[in-house]
Amino acid sequence: MEDLEEAISVARQAITATPLDHPDQPAWLDNLGLRLGDRYSRTGALEDLEEAIDVTRQAITATPLDHPDRPRRLNNLGLRLGDRFSRTGALEDLEEAIDVTRQAITATPLDHPDRPRRLNNLGLRLGDRFSRTGALEDLEEAIGVARQAITATPLDHPDRPRWLNRLGLRLDNRFSRTGALEDLEEAISVARQAITAISLDHPDRPAWLNHLGLRLADRFLRTGAMEDLEEAIDVARQAIMATPLDHPDRPLRLNCLRFVLGVRFSRTGSLEDLEASIGVARQAIKATPLDHPDRPEWLYDLGLRLGDRFSRTGALEDLEEAISVARQAITAISLDHPDRPAWLNHLGLRLADRFLRTGAMEDLEEAIDVARQAITATPLDHPDRPRRLNCLGFVLGVHLSRTGALEDLEEAIGVARQAIKATPLDHPDRPEWLTWKRPLSWPDKLSRRLPSITPIDRDG
């Protein structure tokens, strides 16, 4: 750090001692911008980033259009603007970063050794804009320039693995958007190539293994190939083993292992996988700061797994904790959070579970309340709306069985009609929802318990 401070000081002195119209002045300004960018990367001081952008702009303004260093300076400005976008979220910085990087590439000869790097930078920024706006044309272009960068890069170039990994990320984005299996296949292939090309102690290896594990899990979910799921678990474990205990991404990688173990439990019913999934979920939450934006989701996921274990073993303490962490997750997100309706629906089911186990009416009353909240927060055209309506119908049916309240019956019939109306004719759940063999036929694990609830004697 001491050397960096001295480099910044010397760069400032050079600028001060050089006339504004001196041909070396743009180079000194550009050098100062680079050093300030380095210090920002080390310290996160936003004022360094602001000044780096300012002096790089000055350097470009003072550089003739046909100067051989102009493309490099434009690229440097794009990098710094991209950094500021990542820090502040200002879309105008991202737009300008894309624009100046395009200019840099246009001015770079096809055989220039830095052209692949500049193409990669453009792809990175286009990927950022896709993530922000969802514009598929940005994603398509990001994939295209990533391919160009890789094609123009020698097989033994040290940056090639990183660019392969980024291409894999973009292909995965497109798979998630379009469902094209060929994108997922290629994403897995280039992820493998990237990992194979780096050393075992490479600092990016854990992240790339984690990414590969998730893609393999995606392919399992699409094709059902158990070998993909087994490998996903294996590489997720490798990623965690290679991640230091105090690394900020360790909770994320633990959560990915939790996910793939949970998937295998769902497929095989292995209690060992469920236990392991719960264990790593706890580790992930413990290692995550209270204000981390991912913490609520991880709490919710832990609640799902605890609910699974309760269903398997009947251990009431698992159900109690599942309800507790679901409440924590919901409390930690905003009222307009897109996951809030699903999480409320889940909490309602867990409260209904506890009522069916203990008979505590306050749980049933709250289950009805949160089920209503879930529906209110769900758009009319959302594909999960029928399921949430059916959930409300179920808990109303349970309440009816306990109290005989006619208003419960009326509302239950009403929401059942809404659920059926909103369900496509070929939906696999539609036939079941058309019957009242069980109260609105919500999940078997709940419905099977209903016979133990004695309906009131209407004649007495």
TrEMBL record:
Instruction: Tell me the InterPro entries matching this sequence.
Output: TPR-like_helical_dom_sf
| Protein name (Swiss-Prot/TrEMBL) | Uncharacterized protein
> Taxonomically, which superkingdom?
Eukaryota
SUPFAM superfamilies under this entry?
Answer: TPR-like
